[in-house]
């Protein structure tokens, strides 16, 4: 006799025949199934009568305490949601044709815009670039709009008073219009965004699954396969591809609805729980005879979970309407041992799940976490007290975003838990402890150490909708099916479910879509299923109802790219194109975007766009194909020439590249354009920026020469550019004439450095006078300047003349600089420098040099006369005689021709310089000059005094002077002078006598010695015969 409250399950082996039980047992199960369906219908009706809503969203982070805090009131958050959704219901996803997609006969394709801003790309950089593209496009549009508004500002001011009166009367209508405009702007923004998800009906499921006789009742989504069970108890396991759903296993497991499907951690074994009270466990891929086993618990089961290492332990847990959480295993004798882990008995078990060795279930009490090893309750989270929502009417859903995170959605609530493992065995899958924890006391010594575990609630959200299914999406987002809270309106009509994406931290709703499935009016929340299917790139989900199945695909970057292309949003397509297409395709899209901006006259973004498009064409790579590189360059040229033809080249002129180098025709066209428009500023910038080898210089030079010849207002500006071109190409012979014409001092430097003065001797005076003509100094003004200043001004010209003094005959230079007379100072400076560096060259022109010295530098004339010898002395004497004061020069000249007495008399008469006269006489050493000087100067006391004080070694001069002194001449200091002379003579006499005595004594000594030697004989050695 079996107990009423709890019965041990019976083990039933399944054979190949899908009929597991006999006819009588099957009828009993059908009767029980019918009663259960009636009970569920009553519960659904009761749920539909509940109508009062709770606050929309509550968030809570729980570091230490389970208290919840409401961050927003129902009114505020609800207003936010409605305002951001245009105060309307979310857009329906109808299986009919819409503006963006077409519907074929059998399949539906729906793309819906997002309600809020969503990061749609998998690559973070692609997301940023796509957002930048949107922002740039909006900026350009705003700029154009602002320009139009500015142009209409005056008209608006004139009519402002009338409009103000009209607005005061129709204020309410204006508010409505503003709201409509805002809604239109929001709709436009939505249309600018690509859809987040793509919907398509799945046709590869067997049609029998959606018939009136049978439909899907439970689903399980695994990375290796997709399993679903039906209300008739049939289990289907197929490959996780949405194209064909190739069957892996089809098995008749139960007599009634399958309510739960699960697998072990490896996906090798499946387990199903049914409303008929049985659990069926079997292998999926390695099918063997008697491999599938059924267990009968005699009560409807809602959930089952296999241990992580079921293949070794053969442990599974189950629960259902009985309220027990049963862990089934084997004892020492191999018999099945059932242990009830739930002591509370608080209503039916709605779901059982396991993460590592932590088991958790949901019932009326809430969520209970238990460590299987120790049977210790780690955490119990109560279901929020809500008088309008019964927890047993709604199935809980669980997802594991990470190996230590648990997210549970139940009714309208979402919990976030974290599992922490401490101790010796903190690795996942340490399920040997699970088996050891079930051993009897006799084998307790074999029990290994058990890790400590901790469950913490990290966050809690309360939503204003019921939740069916939940899955992690991306970027801390959650995807779920949402249903309205129970209300009176639900009695009249049942709305379709909504697919929602929310932020897991704040609960902020990011995305909402209604999914219209077949016969949705007759379905309830527990009739729908949503799960993730395997995909190599994006997140794909399958939506299943009793009558329909829809594939929900996250759009990839390629999908976004195609979406932008179809809608001619080439800027955004180009931004993300580098992640999904090759360089050529991306360049073509960029060219379309440039063409679009050009045609729409969005000039603001055009320069940067052109640079970005072509610089990111990646033609700098050494391995790039030449054909592709030529295509890029050709496209670049076409863009520039098109904008040139539109007369908007000024906007992009700074974007014209030098590298890669375009054809010379492009650069020639641009330069010619600015020449024809006389835009000297931009032409100057281009000429100085571009290398001369990228455009046809000869063509541009000819155009410049033509413009300069017209003598227009632009003559000087374009002459400068022409000179620059010539100099850059080292065409000095062509540049110098223009520089001379414009009186540029740089012409002198160029002529000197390149030694080209001879070639331009016909411009002789123009070149020489550039230093003053460039400063607007007149030639007559030179008389006001000092010689040093003039020398400083004309230093470049003088250096140039000196450099070419052998190339240009000196007489020609002298002729050029002789007239007008103001030029002679330049001639003087030139000849002065040449005479020092090239004296032989200037010898024939020393007379001219003397004349110039006498005029401009008289102090140096005497030195010149002494250093030079090729001048005509007679002309020199005549020149010096004609210029009063040239006594020193005349003295030198007369002395040079032997007129010493004439020169001496000039010194005595004109210069009255006794020292000079005495020096002159000593220089010539002529005794007659002494006599002439003494006799000629005896009437001059100054000279007499100088002669008496002049050193006289012989004393004869003193005697002669004293004899010639007139008796009536008065001399100053005559007595001391005579005493000094007498004393000097006396001393001189004594010295002479002493010297004579010394000489005489020495001479006598040497003479005596000589005589003695002469009187001596000579000794010969006769022993040496040879000498004899």
From TrEMBL:
Biased composition (Basic and acidic residues): 14-46
Compositionally biased spans, kind Polar residues: 1-10, 61-74, 84-100
Keywords: Protein transport, Transport, Vacuole
Chain ranges of the Vps41 beta-propeller domain: 197-554
Top-rank taxon, per record: Eukaryota
GO cellular component annotations of the record: fungal-type vacuole membrane; HOPS complex; late endosome
Keyword Ligase attached: no
GO molecular function annotations of the record: phosphatidylinositol binding; small GTPase binding
Location in or out of the cell: Vacuole
UniProt family annotation: Belongs to the VPS41 family.
Protein name according to UniProt: Vacuolar protein sorting-associated protein 41
Organism from which the protein derives: Henningerozyma blattae (strain ATCC 34711 / CBS 6284 / DSM 70876 / NBRC 10599 / NRRL Y-10934 / UCD 77-7) (Yeast)
């Amino acid at each position: 006799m079996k107990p009423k409250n709890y019965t041990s399950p019976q083990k039933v082996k399944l054979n190949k025949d899908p009929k597991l039980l006999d006819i009588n047992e099957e009828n009993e199960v059908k009767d029980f199934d019918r009663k259960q369906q009636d009970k569920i219908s009553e519960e659904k009706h009761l749920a539909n009568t509940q109508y009062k809503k709770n606050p929309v969203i509550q968030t809570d982070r729980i570091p230490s305490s389970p208290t919840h805090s409401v961050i927003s009131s129902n009114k505020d958050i609800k207003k936010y949601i409605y305002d951001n959704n245009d105060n309307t219901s979310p857009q329906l996803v109808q299986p009919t044709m819409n503006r963006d997609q077409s519907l074929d006969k059998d399949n539906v394709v729906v793309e819906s815009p997002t309600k809020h801003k969503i990061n749609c790309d998998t690559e973070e950089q692609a997301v940023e670039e796509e957002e930048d593209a949107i922002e740039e496009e909006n900026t350009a549009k705003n700029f154009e709009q602002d320009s139009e508004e500015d142009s209409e500002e005056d008209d608006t001011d004139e009519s402002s008073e009338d409009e103000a009166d009209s607005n005061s009367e129709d204020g309410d209508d204006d508010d409505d219009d503003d709201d409509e405009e805002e809604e239109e702007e929001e709709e436009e923004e939505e249309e600018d965004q690509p859809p987040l998800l793509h919907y398509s009906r799945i046709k590869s499921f067997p049609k029998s699954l959606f018939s009136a006789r049978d439909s899907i009742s439970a689903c399980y989504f695994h990375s290796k396969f997709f399993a679903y069970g039906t209300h008739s108890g049939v289990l289907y396991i197929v490959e996780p591809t949405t194209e064909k759903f190739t069957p892996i296993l089809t098995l008749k497991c139960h007599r009634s609805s399958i309510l739960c499907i699960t697998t072990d951690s490896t996906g090798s074994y499946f387990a199903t729980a049914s409303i008929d009270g049985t659990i069926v466990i079997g292998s999926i891929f390695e099918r063997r005879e008697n491999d599938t086993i059924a267990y009968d618990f005699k009560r409807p089961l809602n959930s089952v979970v296999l241990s992580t290492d079921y293949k070794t332990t053969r442990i599974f847990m189950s629960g259902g309407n009985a309220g027990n959480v049963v862990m089934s295993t084997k004892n020492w004798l191999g018999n099945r041992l059932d242990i009830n882990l739930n002591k509370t008995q608080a209503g039916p078990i709605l779901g059982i799940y396991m993460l590592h060795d932590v088991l958790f279930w949901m019932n009326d009490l809430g969520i209970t976490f238990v460590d299987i090893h120790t049977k210790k309750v780690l955490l119990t989270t109560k279901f929020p007290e809500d008088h309008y929502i019964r927890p047993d009417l709604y199935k809980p859903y669980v997802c594991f975003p990470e190996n230590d995170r648990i997210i549970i959605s139940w009714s309208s609530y979402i919990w976030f838990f974290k599992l922490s493992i401490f101790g010796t065995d903190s690795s996942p899958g340490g399920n040997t402890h699970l088996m050891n924890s079930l051993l009897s006391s006799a084998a307790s010594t074999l029990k290994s150490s058990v890790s400590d575990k901790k469950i913490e609630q990290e966050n809690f959200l309360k939503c204003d909708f019921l939740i069916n299914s939940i899955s992690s999406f991306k970027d801390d987002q959650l995807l779920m099916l949402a249903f309205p809270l129970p209300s009176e309106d639900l009695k009249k009509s049942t709305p379709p479910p909504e697919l929602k994406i929310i932020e897991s931290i704040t609960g902020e709703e990011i995305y909402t879509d209604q999914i219209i499935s077949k016969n949705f009016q007759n379905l309830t929340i527990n009739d729908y299923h949503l799960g993730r299917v395997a995909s190599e790139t994006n997140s794909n989900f399958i939506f299943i109802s009793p009558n329909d199945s829809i594939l929900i695909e996250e759009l990839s970057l390629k999908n976004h790219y195609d979406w932008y292309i179809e809608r001619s949003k080439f800027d955004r397509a180009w931004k993300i194109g580098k992640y999904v297409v090759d360089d050529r395709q991306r360049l073509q899209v960029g060219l379309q975007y440039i063409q679009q901006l050009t045609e729409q006259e969005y000039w603001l973004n055009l320069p940067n766009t052109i640079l970005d498009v072509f610089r990111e064409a990646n033609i700098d790579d050494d391995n790039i194909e030449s054909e592709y590189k030529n295509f890029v360059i050709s496209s670049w040229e076409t863009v520039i020439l098109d904008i040139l033809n539109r007369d908007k080249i000024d906007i992009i002129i700074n974007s014209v590249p030098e590298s890669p180098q375009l054809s010379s025709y492009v650069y020639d066209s641009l330069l010619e354009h600015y020449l024809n428009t006389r835009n000297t500023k931009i032409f100057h910038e281009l000429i100085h920026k571009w290398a001369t080898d990228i455009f046809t210089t000869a063509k541009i030079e000819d155009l410049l020469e033509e413009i300069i010849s017209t003598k227009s207002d632009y003559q000087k500006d374009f002459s400068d550019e022409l000179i620059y071109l010539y100099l850059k190409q080292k065409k000095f012979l062509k540049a110098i004439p223009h520089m001379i014409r414009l009186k540029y001092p740089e012409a002198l430097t160029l002529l000197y450095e390149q030694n080209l003065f001879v070639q331009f001797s016909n411009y002789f005076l123009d070149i020489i006078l550039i230093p003053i003509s460039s400063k607007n100094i007149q030639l007559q003004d030179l008389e006001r300047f000092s010689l040093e200043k003039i020398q400083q001004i004309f230093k470049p010209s003088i250096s140039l003349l000196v450099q070419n003094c052998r190339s240009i005959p000196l007489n020609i230079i002298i002729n050029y600089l002789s007239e007008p007379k103001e030029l002679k100072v330049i001639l003087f400076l030139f000849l002065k420098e040449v005479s020092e560096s090239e004296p032989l060259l200037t010898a024939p022109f020393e007379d001219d040099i003397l004349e110039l010295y006498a005029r401009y530098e008289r102090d140096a004339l005497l030195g010149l006369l002494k250093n030079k010898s090729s001048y005509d002395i007679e002309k020199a004497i005549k020149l010096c005689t004609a210029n009063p004061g040239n006594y020193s020069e005349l003295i030198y000249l007369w002395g040079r021709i032997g007129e010493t007495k004439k020169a001496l008399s000039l010194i005595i008469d004109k210069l009255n310089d006794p020292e000079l006269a005495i020096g002159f006489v000593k220089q010539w050493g002529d005794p007659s000059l002494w006599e002439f000087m003494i006799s000629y100067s005896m009437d001059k006391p100054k000279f007499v005094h100088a002669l008496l004080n002049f050193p006289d070694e012989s004393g004869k001069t003193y005697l002669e002077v004293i004899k010639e002194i007139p008796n009536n001449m008065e001399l100053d200091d005559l007595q001391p002078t005579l005493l000094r002379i007498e004393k000097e003579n006396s001393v001189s006499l004594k010295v002479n006598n002493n010297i004579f005595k010394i000489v005489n004594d020495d001479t006598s000594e040497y003479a005596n010695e000589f005589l003695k030697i002469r009187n001596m004989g000579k000794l010969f050695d006769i022993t040496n015969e040879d000498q004899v």
